[in-house]
Specification:
This is 4Fe-4S dicluster protein. By secondary structure, the chain is α+β, with helices and mostly antiparallel strands. Helices cover about 20% and strands about 5% of the residues.
């Protein structure tokens, strides 16, 4: 699954620079995650880095974007140009 940022986001700016796929950007009111670029850090790290640094725990899995670990790896390979 891709991750999503909920409206509990306090715009602290710590998640954006941690994303290796540049999937996080400032939205109109809060940060947002592009589900086409989010691999939950598969291919880069063992755990999603944005979740690790978020001080308010507002980055859950997006239930509308179910993806298996294999699908996340394939997305990483495509994004990184290693496919």
């Amino acid at each position: 699954m891709a991750l999503m940022i909920t409206d509990e986001c306090i715009n602290c700016d710590v998640c954006e620079p941690e994303c290796p796929n540049h999937a996080i950007s400032q939205g109109e009111e809060i940060y947002q995650i592009d589900p086409e670029l989010c691999t939950q850090c598969v291919g880069h790290y063992d755990e999603p880095q944005c979740q690790q640094v978020c001080p308010v725990d507002c980055i859950p899995l997006d239930p509308a974007r179910e993806e298996s670990p294999d699908e996340l790896m394939q997305k990483y390979l495509k994004i990184s140009g290693k496919a």
